[in-house]
Amino acid sequence: MSTAVTLKKTDANIALHDIKVVSLPRPVLKANQALLRIDAAALNHRELWILKNMYPGIKFDSVLGADAVGRITELNGESGHFKVGDRVVVMPSQGWTSSLRGPEVESEYFIRGGTESPGIFTQLFAADQAEIFKAPAYLTDIEAAALPLAGLTAYRTVFTKGQVVKGQNVLITGIGGGVALFALQYAVAVGANVYVTSSDDSKIERAIQLGAKGGANYRKENWEEQLLKASNGQQIDVVIDGASGPGADTILSKVLVLGGIFVTYGQTAGDFKFNIMHILRNIEVRGSTMGSRAEFEKMLEFVEKHQIRPIVSQVFEGLEKVSEAVECMKNGVQFGKMVVTVQH
Length: 344
Description:
344 residues; alpha/beta; Quinone Oxidoreductase, Chain A, domain 1; 6-stranded parallel β-sheet; 17 strands; 27% helix; globular
């Protein structure tokens, strides 16, 4: 048997769906699969959106979770890449191989957990061998578990869509979340001048300690002036944004340089208007979400080359603590990833 965290539908009058810890049968391996003993798993904001019933394609009674690190305990089929005992991370989605535009067949693409693609908040997980990769050896289990989804999303936003290079001025909004922090680390690693926004001054200070040049509190009046002051009056070349909303309007009209790139991977603060004035300024708005298996492999190579360590905000012991971790995430005070160790 394998302990797992599943999604349970609740009464329509209850604000959140429920999380239930259950026992499931030991997975039976299909051809060319590997059985993983999961050692640590990480939460993403998508789990919260699923529980709020604000996520497409929800499948009730399915296992939650997209991020984990584990060790191979069994292999079905010959493998020239893996052996029993290898420590691996799992591609956090399925159905997207290498296309730079997006999943090759949209209807066959799923992010793991709470959808048609089985989640990974479980003691034992059956993974296709094509979708597992050796975890960077220098990372702890806690750090490795925190890497896949946010690390991949940030890689695609920064490099595939944002095309960030050395010397550019880059703005990362809402610093403190997993994707934003990886984007900060990646952009700093290639020599970009990184600036951040947050509603919490202490998070801006922590970002500066990680290599940001400065930042601005978007809750303060005329925050964009504070930001441009930090950049010595230079406008921003590339924006990596996960919030959008009213702040995006300000960025598009006052912060971005002519021909600047605005990459958005979420709209937690609502949508924004793109109008003729932005077109006349040659601004490009590029949507981005997750990434392909090819980008996932490149991301792993990049973090290993630059010895990037995921920022972990808090660690919880046992899958039974997933609900507690979600509650902490709801409060929005974390700086980095929430990770749950898996007991056996």
